[in-house]
């Protein structure tokens, strides 16, 4: 298997091409908007077929660990993590599993919206991104989500609870555990870390504000750190940053809170490489402990 195959998930886990007609002044507006709606409808139908195809692909692979336990997109996080660490899953397969699970969990609500609104669904999805499978996200949804995440990081940087050590650096569980949750400054720093890493939805801040339990924030941040460390490990093991496709590179940067909007490819690759290098020591320690527990 080549590094490109090992590192990159199948392209069917990404949104299909969106082919929309250009406005021709000689064509009546109602015909233009009819063909525009058909273009969106084709996009969603293609994406839904891809989600089903990805699920069938995972089933056909019949992935099993050394202990003969069968893997599926709905296997426990610990089982999937172990499969990545022991080499059963490449990074590409790991992300295939994650995306299939995420997409299928969103299908029921999105299906209701799609059945009701049909060709008018694109007018609503910008406001309903949390219920739309990412394989069906429009280009504008990706841009809006990235802009919101960037604004959230900027708010953290400009506020009192900035992430120490500057932006764009990996965190460790030890760093999180060392914070004294009985100390107001430590709690503020913990919340800032979680917001920077987009460890929980911004809506939670709007709904609960400072009432959001520290234990919830801490738990979500620890999970986010473990996910990043596992992905870091898989990238380094399977070939490094260079073989990542452009879309996979952007997604990898999104996961880690690295800027994507208006960034050149070489800049994103450099930042991701820096991230991997800076987090190598803490990542190896964490993975060593996980392997010891697995054994």
Mean pLDDT across every amino acid position = 88
H/E element sequence: HHHHHHHHHHHH
Beta-sheet strand percentage? Answer: under 5%
Number of helices: 12
Which quaternary structure do these chains form? Answer: single chain
Assign an overall shape: globular
**Can you count the beta strands?**
0
Poorly predicted residue ranges: none
Give me the secondary-structure category: mainly alpha
Cα-based radius of gyration, to the nearest Å: 21 Å
Describe this structure in words.
The protein has 295 residues and is mainly α. It contains 12 helices and no strands. It has helices spanning 3-7, 29-61, 77-85, 91-117, 139-158, 173-177, 184-196, 202-208, 214-238, 246-256, 265-278, 280-294. It starts with a helix and ends with a helix.
Task: Give the topology.
Blueprint: H1 3-7, H2 29-61, H3 77-85, H4 91-117, H5 139-158, H6 173-177, H7 184-196, H8 202-208, H9 214-238, H10 246-256, H11 265-278, H12 280-294
Helix pairs in contact: 2-4, 5-7, 7-9, 9-12, 10-11
């Amino acid at each position: 298997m080549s590094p490109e195959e090992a590192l990159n998930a199948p392209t069917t886990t990404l949104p299909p091409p969106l082919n929309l007609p250009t406005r021709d002044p000689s064509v009546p507006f109602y015909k233009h908007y009819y063909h525009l709606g058909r273009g969106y409808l084709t996009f969603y139908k293609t994406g839904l077929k891809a989600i089903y195809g990805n699920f069938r692909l995972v089933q056909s692979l019949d992935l099993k660990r050394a202990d003969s336990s069968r893997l599926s997109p709905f296997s426990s996080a610990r089982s999937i993590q172990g499969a990545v660490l022991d080499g059963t899953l490449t990074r590409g397969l790991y992300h295939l599993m994650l995306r299939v699970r995420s997409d299928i969990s969103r299908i029921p609500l999105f299906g209701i919206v799609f059945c009701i609104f049909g060709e008018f669904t694109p007018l609503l999805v910008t406001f309903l991104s949390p219920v739309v499978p990412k394989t069906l996200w429009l280009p504008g949804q990706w841009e809006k989500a990235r802009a919101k995440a960037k604004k959230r990081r900027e708010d953290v940087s400009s506020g009192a609870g900035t992430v120490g050590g500057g932006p764009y650096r990996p965190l460790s569980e030890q760093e999180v555990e060392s914070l004294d949750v009985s100390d107001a400054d430590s709690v503020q720093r913990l919340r800032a870390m979680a917001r920077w890493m987009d460890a929980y939805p911004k809506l939670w801040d709007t709904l609960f504000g400072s009432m959001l339990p520290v234990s919830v924030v801490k738990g979500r941040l620890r999970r986010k750190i473990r996910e990043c460390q596992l992905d870091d490990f898989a990238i380094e093991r399977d070939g490094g940053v260079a073989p990542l496709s452009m879309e996979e590179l952007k997604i990898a940067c999104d996961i880690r809170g690295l800027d994507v909007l208006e960034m050149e490819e070489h800049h994103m690759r450099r930042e991701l490489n820096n991230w991997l290098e800076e987090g190598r020591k803490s990542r190896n320690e964490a993975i060593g402990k996980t392997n010891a527990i697995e054994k």
